[in-house]
């Protein structure tokens, strides 16, 4: 093998690398690198050695062969082959565009932080876009009508409770009232029974003073407008219950609040319609307030509770603060002071309500001398309604009452009755009316008012006609 291989020879010059590619005798290439010495360092040379001639610059002791030798260029260590282009470290190839860090490609528009693109309109904070109208705080848009406090819009139904109507510009505290009469002391009375006594005169002066105050307040509140009703016939209004008291075991008294200085606006003998809901069904009933029609700030109702009554189930749930709905007024009765010599009232149970209006209207008018006789039918003495008011009304010279008790114990004593009460134990029928009216009733001078249950009204009408009372002088509520 050693004879077949062309060996490397050492050059006279130092540090010269002579790459040679010897050939095997059989034609196989063999590359071997041999260091030759030159006098000049780091000089690279290439020698072509042939069999016919020697290299003029190199002295090589090479055996001559029939095969030509050719030298291959020096290939330093770590060098890439010529077919592979030089690629320094961290250099991106030309086929791949350089993309420095944090640089957005041209196809993607640069969007700096907090900058809105042109396609998106800039909307600074707290700035309203042009399409949205600017609405400063506490400013009402033109499309929304201005609604000052305590002013009710026309589209919203007026709620009388606690609302002062525009026609009431004057406050009660702004109205100047006359001085109240001074009550006389006990020493001012001589005790000799003078008529009138100083205390009688004082009572009269107090009534005159009260009427004067009411007239002044009415004029100030209504500003000359005589209309004083806060009810509507075709529409229900809400009213708030102020208090509830038990009148008897089966009836209750309700005080309903009205605006300050306002009355319900009824005429004598008129009633209202009350609406409520019982088990999902709307229930309506007619009731007559028992308070004076001129009463201001409130009105009173007395309602009897029936065990199976539909409206009674609603009435039982009414408490202070409950809201009830009313409309009205209604009624056909018209009263003219002093038109009749006397008025005979036939009432049963809660039928005393319209009678109470007429009584207070007559007694409250000093110029009305009509005599009132109330025949009040109840089952027992405990069932009598409005005892306190009846006791006060009996102080007037032109009022009297008889309690007709159909189920009162006939064997009982009269000690259970209040002093001055007149009681008839029995039913109100033609016998009773005959004993009361015979020789005292003139058909053209006396008026008979009737109010009670349907059967009671029918019976009383028949009794009156049997006793010769003109039908035109009988009015049934």
TrEMBL record:
PROSITE patterns: FAD_FR
One Pfam family this sequence matches: Oxidored-like
Phylogenetic placement of the source organism: Eukaryota, Metazoa, Spiralia, Lophotrochozoa, Mollusca
Cofactor: FAD
Keyword list, A-Z: FAD, Flavoprotein, NAD, Oxidoreductase
Species annotation: Pinctada imbricata (Atlantic pearl-oyster)
InterPro entries per UniProt: CBR-like, Cbr1-like_FAD-bd_dom, FAD-bd_FR_type, Flavoprot_Pyr_Nucl_cyt_Rdtase, FNR_nucleotide-bd, Oxidoreductase-like_N, OxRdtase_FAD/NAD-bd, Riboflavin_synthase-like_b-brl
Residue sites binding FAD per the record: 285, 287, 302, 304, 310-312
Claim: rRNA-binding is one of the keywords in the record: no
Protein's UniProt name: cytochrome-b5 reductase
SUPFAM superfamilies reported in the protein's UniProt record: Ferredoxin reductase-like, C-terminal NADP-linked domain, Riboflavin synthase domain-like
Domain spans labelled FAD-binding FR-type: 234-336
Membrane-spanning parts: none
